[in-house]
Specification:
CATH topology of the largest domain: Dihydrofolate Reductase, subunit A
Shape: globular
Strand order of the largest sheet: 2-1-10-11-9-3-8-4-5-6-7
Radius of gyration: 18 Å
Number of strands: 11
Distance between the termini: 32 Å
Helix content: 25-40%
Order of helices and strands: EEHEHEHEHEHEHEHEEE
CATH class of the largest domain: Alpha Beta
CATH superfamily of the largest domain: Dihydrofolate Reductase, subunit A
Amino acid sequence: MRLLWHADSRPPSDLDEDALADLYRFGSGPILRANFVSTLDGAGTGPDRRSGSINTPADTHVFGLQRRLADAVLVGAGTARAEGYRRATRVDGDPPTMVVVSNSGRLPDGIRDKRDGDGPAVLITCAAASGERLDQARVALGEDNVWTIGETAVDLTASVARLRAQGIRRILAEGGPTLFSGLLGADVVDEVALTLVPSLVGGDHTRITNGPGLGVALTGRHLCEADGALLGLWAVDRS
């Protein structure tokens, strides 16, 4: 992978693993970073309606790197089911907590099951969720790991605040598009990591955002290239 541009005027250079980790390391303060992949024609998924089908090896590598740097992975329940999510596993330290957002309280099967080496999981839901589903989630995750935050829908602002109060400062949001739009609308996203893959899929595919109109300004941090894919990091500009 090669660094093409950096906001701090670093010269273009080939990147080893340490240099790449330095580019994607979270800052010292609490940070919520969203991570997505998109085709050049703006599709957030491939023909099978999954983002995994448009990933490149470089994107997959950076995806895993960011997980290793994060305290928690935040994902919507629909995306977790569609993409076959399981709890995070890490071999060189404690794995990040898998945090699933579900208005209905339905816990994805892959998160319910715990394998050796898997990290913890938290379900964030709302008061309108099914009581039976919440009881099932509490059996699977433990009482303290099922949070009811919000009345008819999950309150994302309060959810992020609670995660940070629990000491979870580096949050990696991995989708889906509806959750991402909600997080942007709540103004809790600090950074956006996006890979543009060299492919076109056509058709009617969901973009990386799905919801009401937004007006979020971003400031570039860096841009890398690997096998035609462009991998960048931007900061939300609140100035």
